[in-house]
């Protein structure tokens, strides 16, 4: 069934865009990989778990209720468990290709007149000695286990890294019954204070999390970082150390904290695979958009974390703006009515300023690579060590990330470098440039074969007559 607008992603940005466009008469289809809408921010427990108080695990629960109820009352078609691997564009029309089924091997195509990319972001992962031990997971992974599975990853947890995500993860785990031994934040509080004006709107939320940390007696270590995870078959503890003003580990400050789980994260990165495949222009690591959230490719809009990480409230504002723009463009207009800045546009401007301040205040330690030993795995898929990556540059003369990839296979595995690309760039000193991939996820060869249009059968040509023997 053809649709006017295909929205890829059912998180805050995608739902806001879909509902806004549908309210203006646009036929909308939302395509998402999860089994129910909400995205990562509004991830819901499986229905089989029969959660009694799912709101206890969520921030902005009333916002989710409004989105959920509006979606149920709308004509928006929602396709869950659809894993999009490619968006095809031909003569201004689009086809969203997805995979279904337990093995993600059943192809589905959604034709559309326009596409909105609300693909969100993924965690920024930095390696350190011991980070591949069972019991070490990302901060977002721990939160997903708690929200989606009502499971705490361990009994004694250390939450570490940098960024605003660490606060809800630590408080959520503590409220769920885990003993959070420490919250290890590498940022300097003075750096956060320098951006106090831009972050003024975030202060009440931060104060609320701080109060909960005190209530659960969670030890807060600022300007500290995890330098090693310990254990043989699984995690038994971590060593943390203080950082100096330049972001280097201060000698003699290491301390051991016993734990069975480490939830570590260093912020988020925009998810741009589908945008790359369409040829959308990027602005740094994010999809470049104009004031209407339009990309450089006609007929393609983008909103949310894919255009720059800024949180759910910013994603909602961008989705609303994009939905209005899509409705106007598809209905023959030249753009949203020029009636001055809308509340969504004012919100977007304010929250983008806050997002830039957060990114500056919670940047990963500059010298994190100093603690990465040569035997530390960097690319887990292909089992490439930091020593092999360094040898590619120092010994073999690689001058960019792509050459390092060809020499070491770092980034050629299942995740296609999503987890290790920034780490490889940091270790080599090379610029982290996006890799243009034709597909956003692995695709069975049988599915690709079925994408080829069937060639019409050619009529058989009659064979030329053979002259009879003896004829001239």
Automatic annotation (TrEMBL):
Residues 432-472 are annotated as: Disordered. InterPro entries: BFD-like_2Fe2S-bd_dom, BFD-like_2Fe2S-bd_dom_sf, FAD/NAD-bd_sf, FAD/NAD-binding_dom, Metab_Enz_Cyan_OpOx_G3PDH, Opine_Oxase_asu/HCN_bsu. The keyword Oxidoreductase applies. Transmembrane segments: none annotated. Residues 4-310 form the FAD/NAD(P)-binding domain. Keywords: Oxidoreductase. It comes from the Bacteria. Residues 377-425 form the BFD-like [2Fe-2S]-binding domain. The keyword Kinase does not apply. This is NAD(P)/FAD-dependent oxidoreductase.
